[in-house]
Design a protein that fits this description.
By secondary structure, this protein is α/β, with parallel strands linked by helices. It has two domains: about 5-150, Enolase-like, domain 1 (2-Layer Sandwich); about 175-365, Enolase-like C-terminal domain (TIM Barrel, Alpha-Beta Barrel), CATH 3.20.20.120. The chain is built from eleven helices and eleven strands. The strands form two sheets. It has an eight-stranded parallel beta sheet with strand order 4-5-6-7-8-9-10-11. The chain has a three-stranded antiparallel beta sheet with strand order 1-2-3.
């Protein structure tokens, strides 16, 4: 059943700008020297005539997600046009209508989700602003047409996203220092928590983890699909110190089963399936949730992980400005028993000229919280 707060969407702007990196961020799959920031502006009007303007922003990280910058830009434009033709719905209804059967020319599923990100974020933002409240106070039966059972399976019936969110958001979040594959470790000394990008070269990675363990109290490791198989990754995992390494992200290529139980939690990231297929995840201890893939997908994946008692980590994606503020607010509103809430605000090291943009947006509001 629809709600009076269901909205129709008018897209008022789609813009792109290049964000140069002062220092390249090197992943196992390539080097990032610049990325495009996509911003989407929308106006939402609900069934009562109330309206609100919304903003969504994402860096189109094609090196990480796959595809090309041009293909991702084109997909943002197509998806923005598509949402403007929807009938009135709540933002999860709009988001799921776009996610169902999501396929964009020249893009793998992950890249298509990232292209959808700014469109979906803007819809959630405008919906909440039309209501006049934080979106995180509106994800319940008073404002949503369907409970989680409509998207995640019958045992989620009568559960709502608000059931898994905190009433009082955190005012501080831990921050990781991201260290790229080619970056010297001496620049990372003094940070309590390092996120170490790995190359997929077993001996090189072993040596790098040992060296990093002498610099920081906590580590998380991210090969970005760098290991060709679970068996190869198991050789690295056998030497990891569970007291020092908090978790490992996506060591094997997307589409492969997870490597199975090890002493350190292994999380699906690039290989996350559509939200309707989350129960089919095999061999993974948990998931990484990124708002860059859209607020709808992030919110439903987070709720699934919480109810399934999976390890869940919330992160940004080397974001700046409103995208970073959005990711940080999402993390602040989550509750992570058995998981981690963390941002890396990596723009401080890789794109420091955008620091003022991030702080100014954070000071006034995130895209989904007033």
């Amino acid at each position: 059943m629809g709600r009076p707060t269901d909205v129709r969407i008018d897209v008022t702007g789609v813009t792109f700008r290049e964000i140069p990196f002062a220092t390249p961020l090197v992943l196992s799959g390539g080097s990032i020297e610049a990325l495009t920031e996509a911003r989407v502006l929308v106006r939402a009007v609900d069934r009562q005539g109330r309206s609100g303007a919304g903003l969504g922003s994402v860096l189109l990280s094609h090196v990480w997600a796959g595809g090309t910058d041009a293909a991702m830009r084109a997909a943002v434009i197509r998806l923005a046009d598509r949402v403007a033709r929807h009938d009135p719905a709540d933002p999860i209804g709009h988001g799921m209508a776009l996610l169902d059967g999501l396929a964009e020319p020249g893009l793998p599923r992950l890249a298509a989700e990232v292209a959808l990100g700014p469109v979906d974020q803007a819809v959630h933002d405008a919906w909440a602003r039309a209501i006049g409240a934080s979106a995180y106070h509106c994800y319940d039966q008073a404002y949503l047409a369907d409970d989680l059972g409509a998207y995640l399976g019958p045992d989620f019936a009568e559960h709502w996203p608000a059931d898994y969110l905190v009433a009082a958001p955190a005012t501080e979040l831990p921050v990781q220092r991201v260290v790229g594959v080619a970056e010297p470790l001496d620049g990372a000394a003094g940070y309590p928590w390092l996120k170490l990008k790995l190359s997929g070269d077993l001996e090189q990675d072993r040596a790098r983890v040992r060296a990093a363990a002498g610099l920081a109290a906590r580590l998380s490791l991210d090969p970005n699909e760098g290991y060709p198989s679970a068996a190869r990754y198991a050789e690295l995992a056998a030497g990891l110190d569970a007291a020092r390494v908090a978790y490992v992200e996506q060591p094997v290529p997307r589409g492969q089963p997870g490597p199975g139980p090890t002493s350190v939690p292994v999380l699906a990231d690039e290989g996350l399936p559509p939200v309707t297929g989350l129960d089919d995840l095999n061999g993974w201890d948990g998931v990484v949730v990124k708002t860059a893939r859209g607020q709808t997908s992030a919110l439903l994946t987070y709720c699934w992980a919480r109810r399934r008692c999976r390890f869940v980590v919330q992160q940004d994606l080397t974001h700046i400005g409103p995208a970073l503020a959005h990711a940080a607010t999402f993390a602040a509103c989550g509750d992570e028993p058995g998981g981690e809430t963390v941002v890396y605000a990596a723009f401080r090291f890789f794109s420091p000229n955008n620091f003022n943009s991030a702080t100014s947006f954070s000071a006034r509001a995130s895209p989904v919280a007033k």
